[in-house]
């Protein structure tokens, strides 16, 4: 008996060691920025240096140049913007990286918010000429709320821009973050020559490589005589003087403060010309936070737990239009995931067998046999998953749900062709499930056309485009004159007791819950004054244990 116990303990220790090694070599991060800061370009260059692609493509491809890997949707290629979040998994050095590429456009901030719920780190991309921009500030607040470590990459140093010290001061004064420059630029604009690593004073000089290829780099030490021959002394001396100033006035690099989101390591470079991308990636892998535990019922779930758990943070329909597929993106939080394993679905209590799990790389996918905490994998979704669902083995785990944003634009979606009614309903339901837009319905049963509710107009345009090109349904919109939505806490019984309410429209969401629409904030405040008994909230409550109404 004693021998059996010792063997069992040895086996458990061996399994835990293997699990620890697997988790420690994984890294998970999202990239956030204002539109046009160069986010998609940086993503492509990281993939290039990671060996995941052989040539990077610009957002607006020319001639034979490749289309970008992360922007796989046809509309993204046409407009040159990221519309949907993408997962890109690749190996670099000894690390397995899960890169979450997010939309920069403010109309898709809800998709970005959901994706950030699956991230352990965030890279905040900033334009060297423009500094902090509105969407960057909004996404930063989401990261702060979720206590995600933030790493700053100041991009486009090969173009005329603001002084580096001024950019650091703006980060500290406006965001309340303490910036710690990991490297420092030598020159800027046409005179951008390279960067100095602040930690060991090593210098990396760059020469422009062929478009889309890795930049030519040379590495020297600060005191190397060759350095003064390669770089103008006025540029080098200015960079060294500014570095000395940072050492005197700046804070020390404290990794606990980095991982708590109080210090942001700062890097300088140019994604378009590949200047500083490799040195950023190397340092980022060294400094970034490893997969962290998540909260379930007030308790932290250890990523090294022997039991598997994960949650769904994104749904996507028609990634492969030929097969009309539906994919659920799952962030693994603990344990070891294995192909064909059976897991418990926390919301429904059902036991589900997860066959054909997929490793994701933009639109491309391949079957994966195992995965660990920090990984994001794709699951076939025949309609059983909803955003925020938890899957687990062992004792019940249910991670915090992901709330919806309060919509500000509302339009009736009309289908003028009765012969496409079935495809129309299917498309609306699938796009609603993946969170492309919220869908509301009139309380009058005779009015069956859905109401699209979105944060921005572009969201609604994307839904129309996808209905036409993915489901073969042409539609038209009838805008509604409402700009504010509020969910009623307590449900329909509260409204029945109150009776008729003026200056607002009552609709129901896809879960059958009452929602009040107001034309403006004044009408909303009027309701609060006249009916203080009605409790309302601006964010759709997270639903557990229910299935949405199929309308």
TrEMBL record:
CDD domains: RF3, RF3_II. Its main location: cytoplasm. InterPro entries: EF-G-like_DII (IPR053905), EFG_III/V (IPR035647), G_TR_CS (IPR031157), P-loop_NTPase (IPR027417), PrfC (IPR004548), RF3_C (IPR032090), RF3_dom_3_sf (IPR038467), RF3_GTP-bd (IPR041732). GO terms for cellular component: cytosol. Keywords: Cytoplasm, GTP-binding, Nucleotide-binding, Plastid, Protein biosynthesis. It holds the Pfam family GTP_EFTU. It comes from the Eukaryota. GO terms for molecular function: GTP binding; GTPase activity; translation release factor activity, codon nonspecific. Residues 24-292 form the Tr-type G domain. It is found in: Cytoplasm. Belongs to the TRAFAC class translation factor GTPase superfamily. Classic translation factor GTPase family. PrfC subfamily. This is Peptide chain release factor 3. It comes from Paulinella chromatophora.
């Amino acid at each position: 008996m004693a021998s059996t116990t010792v063997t069992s303990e040895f086996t458990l220790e061996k399994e835990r060691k293997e699990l620890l090694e697997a988790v420690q070599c994984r890294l998970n991060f999202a990239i956030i920025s204002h539109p046009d800061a160069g986010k998609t370009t940086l993503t492509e260059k990281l993939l290039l240096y990671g060996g995941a692609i052989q040539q990077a493509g610009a957002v607006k491809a020319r001639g034979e140049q490749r289309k970008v890997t992360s922007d796989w949707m046809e509309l993204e290629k046409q407009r040159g913007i990221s519309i949907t979040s993408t997962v890109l998994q690749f190996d670099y050095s000894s690390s397995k990286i899960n890169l979450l590429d997010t939309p920069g456009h403010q109309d898709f901030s809800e998709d970005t918010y959901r994706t950030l719920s699956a991230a352990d780190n965030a890279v905040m991309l900033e334009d060297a000429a423009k500094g902090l921009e509105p969407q960057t500030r909004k996404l930063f607040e989401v990261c702060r709320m979720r206590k995600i470590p933030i790493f700053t990459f100041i991009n486009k140093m090969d173009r005329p821009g603001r002084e580096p010290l001024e950019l650091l001061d703006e980060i500290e004064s406006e965001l309340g973050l303490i910036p710690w420059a990991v490297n420092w630029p030598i020159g800027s604009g046409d005179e951008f020559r390279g960067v100095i690593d602040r930690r060991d004073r090593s210098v990396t000089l760059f020469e422009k490589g062929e478009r889309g290829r890795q930049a030519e780099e040379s590495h020297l030490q600060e005191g190397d005589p060759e350095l003064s021959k390669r770089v103008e002394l006025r540029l080098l001396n200015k960079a060294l003087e500014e570095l000395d100033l940072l050492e005197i006035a700046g804070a020390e690099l404290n990794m606990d403060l980095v991982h708590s989101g109080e210090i942001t390591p700062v890097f300088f470079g140019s994604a378009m010309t590949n200047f500083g991308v490799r040195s950023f990636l190397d340092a980022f892998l060294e400094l970034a936070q490893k997969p962290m535990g998540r909260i379930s019922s007030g308790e932290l779930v250890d990523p090294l737990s022997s039991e598997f758990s994960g949650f769904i943070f994104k749904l996507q329909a028609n990634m492969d239009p030929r097969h009309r597929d539906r994919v659920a993106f799952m962030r693994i939080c603990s344990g070891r995931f294995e192909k064909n394993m059976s897991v418990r679905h926390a919301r429904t209590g059902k036991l589900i067998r997860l066959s054909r799990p997929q490793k994701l790389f933009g639109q491309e996918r391949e079957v994966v046999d195992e995965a660990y905490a920090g990984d994001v994998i794709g699951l076939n979704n025949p309609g059983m998953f909803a955003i925020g669902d938890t899957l687990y083995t062992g004792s019940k785990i249910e991670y915090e749900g992901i709330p919806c944003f309060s919509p500000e634009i509302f339009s009736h979606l009309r289908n003028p062709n009765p012969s496409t009614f079935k495809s129309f309903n299917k498309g609306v339901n699938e796009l609603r499930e993946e969170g492309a837009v919220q869908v509301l319905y009139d309380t009058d049963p005779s009015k069956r056309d859905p109401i699209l509710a979105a944060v921005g107009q572009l969201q609604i345009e994307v839904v129309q485009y996808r209905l036409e090109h993915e489901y073969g349904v042409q539609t038209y919109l009838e805008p509604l004159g409402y700009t504010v939505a509020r969910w009623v806490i307590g449900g329909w019984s509260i409204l029945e007791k109150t009776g008729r309410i003026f200056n607002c429209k009552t609709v129901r969401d896809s879960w059958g819950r009452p929602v009040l629409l107001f034309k403006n904030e004044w009408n909303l405040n009027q309701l609060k004054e006249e009916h203080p008994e009605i409790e309302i909230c601006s964010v759709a409550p997270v639903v557990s244990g229910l299935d949405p109404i199929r309308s």
